[in-house]
Design goal:
Elements lengths: L6 H24 L6 H14 L3 E2 L17 E5 L2 E3 L13 E10 L2 E10 L5 H19 L7 H14 L3 E2 L5 E3 L6 E5 L16 E4 L2 E3 L5 E3 L6 E3 L5 E3 L2 E6 L2 E4 L4
Antiparallel strand pairs: 1-4, 2-4, 3-12, 4-5, 6-10, 7-8, 7-9, 9-14, 10-13, 11-12, 14-15
Helix pairs in contact: 1-2, 3-4
Bound molecules: magnesium ion.
The site of magnesium ion has 5 residues, from loops.
């Protein structure tokens, strides 16, 4: 069941979204070669807790893993798609780093991911980055009342195909609100014009994951980190978007 949010609830969700955006601002200041992913996690967690929020991923038990997620953010590098666990790994020149931040504030969740090009990255990785960001923006443009859910999905897949990239099919975006994962699932592929009609008050976390190689992914022995089977680079962006009468309202951007 898709839970539509009132204008007041969307205002509360925007507070959670703004905090997510502020965490990214903070991380961008320290993200450089030599920094460990564990340090990024500590900085993010400190800010989230200081603002009276709760890091949504910490302790999360997902549908694919019986192991509670041990950190506050996900940091997924290069061939890692999503759910990378921060720790001792050091960011290096040439890395494509995806960071996923989720918070719970005033009973509502905010969820977003950004990818970052560290130093001199390869041409193809740079193109992948641009295509993934474009795909997110194209899909947000579809968040208009009267469109259908799969118009979002189709916009993502179309942009990926334009550059010959594939989209991850095993992981999807989602409704979001008082729970981090609500209905509906937001696929990153599909024909347009299908699924539920988009309505005022729906809030969706849209998260394109594009791969240089094919769409196959697998989970590592840590029971969380998702990597491409061919170990080619993957890129991930995400925003939490509310559908309003006046169009899409991106809650996780400043
Ligand atoms: Mg998400």
């Amino acid at each position: 069941m898709i839970i539509c949010k009132s204008a007041d609830e969307i205002r509360l969700m925007q507070k959670a979204g703004v905090l997510v955006a502020e965490v990214f601002l903070q991380l961008e200041k320290i993200l450089r070669p030599g920094v460990t992913t564990g340090y990024l996690d500590r900085i993010a967690e400190d800010l989230i807790v200081k603002k009276g929020a709760h890091p949504a991923f910490k302790g999360y038990v997902g549908r694919i893993s019986s192991r509670a997620f041990p950190a506050s953010i996900c940091v997924s590098i290069n061939e890692e798609v999503v759910h990378g666990i921060p720790g001792k790994r050091t960011i290096r020149d040439g890395d494509l780093v995806s960071i996923d931040v989720g918070v719970k504030l005033n009973g509502f969740y905010g969820d977003a991911a950004r990818s970052y090009r560290i130093g001199n990255i390869s041409k193809i990785a740079d193109r992948l980055y641009g295509a993934t960001l474009d795909a997110l923006n194209a899909s947000i443009d579809k968040c208009e009342t009267g469109n259908r859910l799969s118009d979002i999905s189709h916009a993502i897949e179309s942009r990926a195909c334009q550059d010959g990239f594939s989209v991850v099919r095993d992981f999807v975006g989602h409704g979001i609100g008082k729970k981090m994962h609500e209905d509906p699932q937001v696929l990153n592929y599909g024909l347009p014009g299908q699924g539920p009609m988009l309505k005022k008050g729906m809030v969706l976390a849209i998260e394109p994951m594009l791969n240089i190689g094919n769409s196959d992914v697998e989970v590592l022995d840590d029971l969380w980190t998702v990597v491409t089977v061919d170990r080619k680079y993957s890129c991930h962006f995400e925003d939490t978007v509310a559908i309003t009468e006046s169009g899409p309202l991106v809650l996780t951007r400043l």
